[in-house]
Amino acid sequence: MQLTNRSKQVADTKMTWMERIYLPGIIKGMIITFSHIFKKKPTIQYPEVQRPIAPVYRGQHVLKRDDAGAERCTACGLCAVACPAEAITMVAEERKQGEEKLYREEKFAATYEINMLRCIFCGLCEEACPKEAIFLTDRIVPTTYLREDYIYGKDRLVEKMDHRVDVSKRQTNNLADFKNNSSKAHNKTI
Amino acid sequence: MLSTEIIYKIILILAVFTVTLVVALYSTFAERKVAAVLQDRYGPNRAGPLGMFQPFADGVKMFTKEEFIPGNADKQLFILGPSIAMLTCLMTGAVIPWGGDLTIGDYIFKLQVTDINIGILYLLGVVSVGVYGIMIGGWASNNKYSLLGALRASSQMISYEIAMGLALIALVMMTGSLSLGEIVRQQDEGLANIVYQPLGFLIFLVCAFAETNRAPFDLPETESELVGGYHTEFSSMKLGFYLFSEYINMFISSALIATLYFGGYNFPFQHSLGIEGNALSIVQTVVFFGKIFFFIFFYMWVRWTIPRFRYDQLMKLGWKTLIPLAILNLFITGIVIGFKNGFFN
Ligand code: SF4
Ligand code: SF4
Is the pTM value of this prediction over 0.80? Predict the structure, then answer.
């Protein structure tokens, strides 16, 4: 199969005199490199300019709170089961009296950790979550020097009250429909 | 009278010294910029406006790196190597005529540290001492890569010095002088030497690339086979000296190419511009630096275009092509001079 018409047949012929003095070839090459001075540079000046990312970009996770500010996650573990990279671990705990403002469900995640080095940002956790608690956002996981720093606990995953993360573009109607439609296999009660 | 002369010379030496260092400093920056634009990149542009402070950042980095001497290295020679390399390349600037004469009051100041009548010979001598810097450094490191790099450097420089010398002899035969000042003055009266010596120029240019260890002849420091070549074991400012001396060499050889073959500080129609005396001298210096900067750019342009030669190809080119060509050039020059002087009548 021929992919391009630019390929050249390799031949082990003797070089002609013109080729052997190299100078024409060198001059040709130098003209080519010189012409590149005026070419447009494809570099993106990163911190100032950012490459446009897709609206459904899957980056660092967020654990959502509901409108009243209570954590939505109920530590059901479905995300951990769904995760192909086994990146999620959690410890569940029962909600006590007076903690209704903090946790929406009767059971909550006392610890919830995602190892960002294991995570492949597939988004299956988000799909598995029945409580609309976990979402992937368009934030990029920053690099650090230590492996421990990549294990994100609740301190970094749960959204801050004064700094809510907008995930509306990932909560499409289709998705909500899919999640709530009881005729779909994943919602069937046995 | 004497004291004015001495003070002036000291000032001029300091000025040449400073200019050489500054140009070398910014050559490191220019190298990265040129490499970048030739490859559709931006190059360093973070430190200061357009990255202008990058060389200083590099300098600070070089100075603050650990000063390391390998255990089995010969300490004295290890320090002597980079020192010689730096010393010799700084010495070469002394004979380059940087511009015409300046007249202030009764004094005529030459913009040349010293116009010795064996300028070219002096240059060749100093440059060949420069090989010792590399050879001693590579030998003293007690490392096989360094040694191989040093061996390559020395044999390469010695081989190419012959062709370079032969090309220069043809030029000297034509001009009848070894003094750089005289050669430049002759080019003011006549045409630039490139017109008479195109082949000689080409040989000299190729040899200059080999002498300064620049790509495509940078075999002494081929990263792919010799780690870092002769400066593998060097760190901190000792490494800085080696790298710096390479850039100074590039600057000086650019100045030399401009002086010998492109009219030095002269430029076409300079006497019909209506400026004279000091103003003309200053313009001449600016023009001269313009020429030098073009050749420095040319060095970099070639480096980022042509792949490195193989060592046997390098030697073949030197001994089997350049030297016969240089002899041919010498021969032709001799015959032409003979005809002109009526030798064959
Ligand atoms: S995005 Fe995929 S890999 Fe990452 S935690 Fe969620 S399910 Fe696991
Ligand atoms: S994030 Fe969702 S799926 Fe995961 S434990 Fe919490 S509620 Fe369950």
Answer: no
